[in-house]
């Protein structure tokens, strides 16, 4: 707590054990009274970051995921949840047609959904990360800026069942797969204007 205060951090804060994934162990520290007992037993290190409430007027928080293939952004998914800690598997996406419709619109035209400012920022982020493959989770702020949750090179991309409610995601997923296959076969910079041939 003393270190956080010296760093100028004040609640609300997010505490995340170092090395944890999938939201495991992440806690919202709403006041210093929540600090006692917040650090998991056995945790050697942890991260503290400022918490930004991102709940929309409809009571939901939206987390977008974009994957970069050779620095070019591709939409992967949108998770919409009533909880501040948003994960696709716990957001009950398949139970709500309106959520799936919103995700489908994002996958079909992410630049239109996010806006020019956000899409330009994503392109710049891909260049700054400078990796052949990586991904970023983020929220869209009301003024068109992005609030980045995390960016790393280990985000999973997988197809959905062709007979399931999420099958509409497969064209966007296939675009990522084809872009990566093209990059591996032709290790030259892939630009947004390039057309990736079908496999």
- The level 1 CATH classification of the largest domain is Alpha Beta
Order of helices and strands: HEEEEEHHHEEH
How are the strands of the biggest sheet laid out side by side? 5-4-6-7
The largest sheet, given as strand count, sense and whether it forms a barrel, is: 4 strands, antiparallel
Shape: globular
Report, as a whole number of angstroms, the end-to-end distance. Answer: 54 Å
Question: How would you sum up this structure in a few lines?
Answer:
The chain is α+β, with helices and mostly antiparallel strands and 199 residues long. It has helices spanning 2-6, 97-108, 110-114, 116-129, 170-185, and strands at 13-17, 27-29, 46-50, 61-69, 72-81, 133-140, 146-152.
Explain the overall architecture.
With 199 residues, the chain is an alpha+beta fold. It folds into two domains: 2-50, no CATH class; 61-185, D-amino Acid Aminotransferase, Chain A, domain 1. It is built from five helices and seven strands, in the order αβββββαααββα. Strands 5-4-6-7 form a four-stranded antiparallel beta sheet. Strands 2-1-3 form a three-stranded antiparallel beta sheet, with no helix packed on it. It is globular, with a radius of gyration of 18 Å.
Give me some keywords for this one.
199 residues; D-amino Acid Aminotransferase, Chain A, domain 1; 2 domains; 24% strand
